[in-house]
Specification:
The chain is α+β, with helices and mostly antiparallel strands. The chain has helices at residues 5-15, 51-72, 80-93, 95-99, 102-109, 113-121, 136-149, and strands at 18-23, 29-32, 35-36, 125-128, 131-134. β4 and β5 form a beta hairpin. α2 (51-72) crosses α3 (80-93). The chain is globular.
Amino acid sequence: MKTGAKGLALIKVKEEFRATWYTCPTGYPTIGYGHVIQKGEERYYNASLTEPEAAALLAKDLARYEKAVLRGTEAATLTQNQFDACVCLCYNIGEAGFEGSTVARYINARVSEVKIREAWSRWNKGTVKGKKVVLNGLVTRRKQEADLFFSK
């Protein structure tokens, strides 16, 4: 399964295109559509990406997160919207975060919408200056992801 148009659009809106590197709210060097600059990618510190270049980097990144969602939800049959919502969450919280999350466990167990939404909403914190704090942007993002997950 691959990320569909709705998932890609949500990720692009939430990550916001940035042509040059910046430090994300949790302190990671980032470029394009939320691509965390890794060891060996130091060239991005001096780069200015075009939108198509950032979109290509996002597409490359998505492959990892799509695989993690498939691993994390192997007991569930996901619709395209559900898969897209999970990829958006995974893109933001990481592969291990998603695969070990209550969200993935609840999806696999097919628990109620209320419980899945509550588990989803817990991923609203980031580490800022060494402390876990609620980030308003993440509160909004989690609601939009959960809304996509439960949409037809």
